């Protein structure tokens, strides 16, 4: 089977040219491989850190965050299912769950969201499907389902039979939407040689349709009498927030000169949200969608001369804005705000966390600029004893950082509308890890730690708009592509996935140069690897249970990769107790002390193993969802994704009987790729009858109706 190989992306090699300490150097200075491999989770933690690291680390008390489901006692076995067998890479066109379980596709790209405004059913005929208009697409589920949250109905209940699903749509793909830039591409076509205008320049409605398949869908879902989940039609809650929706700007960057454009001279409103990757929820019941790969995918620079000084300015370079760039979408031919020659500030208006109220469609979404601008992956939170809330975030790029935002004011648990402005005031911090298992949250506050006008930060808005540069300046610790974070309210631990970093220690990796020496110098994060192929998971806990504080402890959880002869290079083997996996991405912590881990290794990344060997992927197969018992560190494989898909946005109902999972880009790896021949998951409609592969949200339940894994 032939396909177009994915070229290296900026998040693979990073744009961080600071000399800040690299996390791998810190760990390498303290650990031996033997210490990691010879014990379980708690044994490793003791071997690494003894009884704690930070100066003010007291026995950690439980932060009174949103409580986990009340259980008299956890059963001894919370992984009570048969581990599914791995599917060899690119050898499976279906989703696999354990015996005794079933899955159904609840939402699929192109299906109606259930709005009272209506929408046509998904057109199974290819010819008719491409006739879908932009207006119709704005009432359909988008593509590339990613982050997600389940909100029980009514608000304040723990209903596990009816609720709202808020679903991110990160991108739109070839073969799924007409008029895509690479329409007509063949297996041997170099995308760089294609006409970047294509039919997009001649058809504004094609651009509108592509924009509509980005953003967020909110849909009402319910479990019917047969136990099957359905989308409620004619729902008062159903809505889309897409790339043309007007969104307010909140927080310190509102009205700032760098946020003003020709279409918004006041700098107070943005049309659209893009690159919607991971997500989160607030304790007052709003949805947080995270804008990730906005700058490199959507904004064209080819009309600007290569000599333009802004290309050398870190304010552009650190956000992957480079000369002569036309990426996966060519909206700039129709919508000039995506042409940086015409609107150089438009890119500053993306890369934020956007707050949406799924319970109130009349409430305008808001970009919360106090949380900083970078490649946001997702958001996890904990509530402090004084009711202030801490939100934890990762910047998904090689050698970038982990952040925390703490609200200035306490939330009101009895008045959710009073909390709508909480995310506009507070302090953004970035993590600096210490060798002794401790760490410090460094404030990104104008006037502190060198964040002054003399250093390019004349005000707090500048600190937040260019948060990466501010984090560089204060000396944060470089990490291996921080992805999702998940919080355990009972213990105060915040788990963080560090997906991989193939540039670390690899002097020939793309993006490495004398100007970015960290790629060549850095050690392995958890053992002496020259490049972190498979990633790892750590966890952090604020000292003394004070999630508004500035000290934390950290522990190693697991190194990903196999630990068998399947992996010829011992440096690429993992420390997993149980089923092997690579590239941990999405994570969700449930009420049974389990960490659900979704992977995103990607067939293109495997195929383009820069070492040339490609054999260190043996024994891993397609992307998957696993469950870890955090008490023992045991890991079991619960789900195998179809070919080309990653596993995202896992959510569980309060009763533990339904697991919602997003299956993103099945059949393809990146938007420019060709769909795998004849793959039509999840509908299995033959290609001859117009079938096509679609991203989807699936609901997984036990056939006997019991609690998952118990």
Description:
The chain has 710 residues and is of the alpha+beta class. The chain is 10% helix and 25% strand. It contains 13 helices and 31 strands. A 9-stranded antiparallel β-sheet has the order 13-14-16-17-18-23-22-21-20, with helices on one face. Strand 27 (624-629) and strand 28 form a beta hairpin. 57% of the residues are buried.
What structural class is derived from the secondary structure elements? Answer: alpha+beta
Low-confidence stretches: 1-8, 30-71, 179-199, 512-520, 524-528, 607-614, 669-674
Give the DSSP E fraction (strand runs of 2 or more residues). 25-35%
Helix content: 10-25%
* Strand order within the widest beta sheet: 13-14-16-17-18-23-22-21-20
Q: Using DSSP, what is the number of strands? A: 31
| pLDDT averaged residue by residue | 83
Give the overall silhouette. globular
Radius of gyration: 23 Å
Spatial gap, N to C terminus:
40 Å
- Major β-sheet profile: 9 strands, antiparallel
Number of helices: 13
At a glance:
The chain is α+β, with helices and mostly antiparallel strands. It has 13 helices and 31 strands.
What's the SSE blueprint?
Blueprint (H helix, E strand, L loop, with lengths): L9 H4 L9 H6 L4 H5 L3 H9 L51 E8 L17 H4 L4 H4 L7 E8 L9 E8 L34 H9 L2 E9 L5 E3 L7 E3 L4 E5 L18 E3 L4 E6 L5 E5 L3 H4 L15 H4 L35 E4 L9 E3 L7 E8 L5 E7 L2 E3 L1 E6 L18 E8 L4 E6 L16 H6 L1 H8 L4 E2 L1 E6 L5 E6 L19 H4 L14 E7 L8 E9 L17 E2 L5 E6 L4 E6 L3 H5 L16 E6 L4 E7 L5 E7 L6 E6 L31 E7 L8
Parallel strand pairs: 7-12, 24-28
Antiparallel strand pairs: 1-31, 2-3, 3-4, 4-5, 4-6, 7-8, 9-10, 10-11, 11-12, 13-14, 14-16, 15-19, 16-17, 17-18, 18-23, 20-21, 21-22, 22-23, 25-26, 26-27, 27-28, 29-30, 30-31
